[in-house]
Amino acid sequence: MTMKITGAPCSWGVDDPKNPHLPPWSRVLDEAREAGYAGLELGPYGYMPLDAGVLGAELDRRGLSLVAGTIFDDLVSPANLPALLRQADEIGALLKALPSPEPLPGQRQATPYLVIIDWGHRERDLAAGRSDAAPRLSDADWARMVDHIRQIADLARERHGIRSVIHPHAGGHIEFADEIRRIAADIPDATAGLCLDTGHLHYSGMDPAAWLREFAHRLDYVHFKDVDAARHREVLSGAPVPFFEACARGVMCPIGQGALDYGRIRATLQDIGYQGYITVEQERDPRHADTSLRDVRLSREHLRSIGFQ
């Protein structure tokens, strides 16, 4: 089994690039290296520089690589398509211009990836984790979202040689079991793979190990996070709580301190023969980024203690 652990800027609270409290991106690079991660993701569009010369020099100085870039945006609205395609083009060009992460034996698809996440719908954000309360897209809106994903993935592949992966995410229109199965059926593997996130699956009422097994044939990339059981019950039991507000309350915790059984998850990945990169995340309020290095170290140390190298 060959797996390599990387990190992501969201563990420093970096989700909205317009948030005035974000830590400097250079600090995220420094602390990812200090915590022992092999590389990291680019983070949301607009956070790290898109200049390959500038960013490449800073990554190289720290011995890091970029495993993925992300489109974290409204995939449904027709007016947003030009912005989505611009992001795909600019992120794809950057990833192509930088040295690729080390290829791992047995990987389904080579890194780096373009991670595609639907986001930006208030009615779904308020229903994060609550399948019964979450309004589904109409057939017409779903078909438009599928078409947008196809256009993004085609552009990234044809223009830059970058593989796209679809990431189900709490608070977006691809979150629950019916939606994950539907998008996997509507987007063929030749167009895009899947990035399954253990924490989002658990947050939204699914068993991560079971879903990793069900979609082993589409699994290009994996995200790890852990969920504080008490805070999870709290945010789902009362008035609706937007997903990132739940994260600001501490619903995500260092791996090994929450509800997920990472020994079982590791055994599942071994059983299905997963070979590739795994990115650790712990969404938080960026005003608490002073504890990020401590927490990403704890996550890395726990994963190493149970057999992840």
Q: How would you name the oligomeric state of the polypeptide chains in this document?
A: single chain
- Tell me the overall shape: globular
Could you name the CATH homologous superfamily of the domain at 67-281?
A: Divalent-metal-dependent TIM barrel enzymes
SSE-based structural type:
alpha/beta
Helix count, DSSP H or I runs of 4 or more residues? 12
CATH architecture of the domain at 67-281: Alpha-Beta Barrel
CATH class of the domain at 67-281: Alpha Beta
Give the strand tally. Answer: 10
CATH topology of the domain at 67-281: TIM Barrel
Give the DSSP E fraction (strand runs of 2 or more residues).
5-15%
Question: Biggest sheet, open or closed, and with what strands and sense?
Answer: 8 strands, parallel
* Strand order of the biggest β-sheet: 1-10-7-6-5-4-3-2
Report low-confidence residues grouped into runs of 5 or more.
Answer: none
- Average pLDDT for all residues: 97
H/E topology pattern: EHEHEHEHHEHEHHEEHHEHEH
Distance between the termini: 10 Å
Helical residue percent band:
40-55%
Rg over alpha carbons: 18 Å
Question: Which key phrases capture this entry?
Answer:
309 residues; alpha/beta; TIM Barrel; eight-stranded parallel β-sheet; two-stranded antiparallel sheet; 12 helices; 10 strands; 41% helix; 15% strand; globular; Xyl_isomerase-like_TIM-brl; hydrolase; lyase; IolE/XylAMocC-like
Question: Could you give a quick summary of the protein structure above?
Answer:
With 309 residues, the chain is an alpha/beta fold. It has twelve helices and ten strands.
